[in-house]
Amino acid sequence: MVGPERPQFVLFGSSIVQFSFSNEGWGAVLAHIYARKADIILRGYSGWNSRRAVQILDQVFPKDAAKQPSLVIVYFGGNDSILPHATGLGPHVPLSEYIENVRKIAIHLESLSEKTRVIFLTAPPVCEKQLRASLSGAVDMVRTNDSCRIYSEACLEVCRGMNLKAIDLWTAMQQVENWETVCLTDGVHFTAEGSKIVVKEILRVIKEANWEPSLHWKAMLTEFSEESPYDPVSEGKTVNVSEHDLTGDSPWE
Question: What biological-process terms (Gene Ontology) are attached (predicted)?
């Protein structure tokens, strides 16, 4: 255990989460924004679907842990939406089971503590042409933008019914002109611009949420932010630079 103790934000999901610290990803951006405020913890598992996530909930989020996360951001659905394979193998999860799995994940996470907050990310869109080119026969599976829409809408519906926060990435990404190439690297995973959309939406939800305490970065304490005679000196006075990179002209709200 490394101190001082900070709030924990856990990113839980498949490759969209696992890769979120590369290529100026949304996980790395959140870690920068919340520097000295919260620890961003990665629990991403490339290729996973909601069925596998449900199977390991107790291992990743034990209910008897001494410290529980303040926020869990969940993403499963894209791999679930891959069309069924003739062999019965592969990541596809039937829609009815996916809906039930989202409920199970939400119930487990909300039971961790009264202060644990949850945000679900829906399946983002895919560029089918780009995806076919990037896979190039290496993987025998079919993923369509329409199937992603169906699973995205199902996730949103579950979250509405459970009064949970959810972000409609399928719609948000497609608001961008030429989203297929601007937001996606291989038809599925995010470019830096795509990750900016994810961060913007997450911060919007956190800012608008009526959570106590607030988890918005501007409302959270900065660790060791008191002034010190060891701070840099400018014009004969010390300058507190504890939040220097995130003040004034920060692009994040």
Answer: lipid catabolic process
pLDDT tens digits along 50-62: 999 999 999 999 9
Q: What is the mean pLDDT of the chain?
A: 92
- Which residue among 92, 108, 189, 216 is the active-site one? 189
Instruction: Respond yes or no: is residue 189 known to be catalytic.
Output: yes
pTM: 0.94
Rounded Cα–Cα distance for residues 202 and 152 (Å): 16
Q: How far apart are CA 105 and CA 57, in angstroms?
A: 7
Active site residue 186: yes
List the one residue out of 203, 245, 242 whose CA is nearest residue 26: 203
Q: What are the CA-CA distances from residue 138 to residues 24, 98, 114, 133, 219 (Å)?
A: 26, 26, 45, 10, 47
CB neighbour class for 79 (10 Å; exposed up to 12, middle 13-18, buried from 19): buried
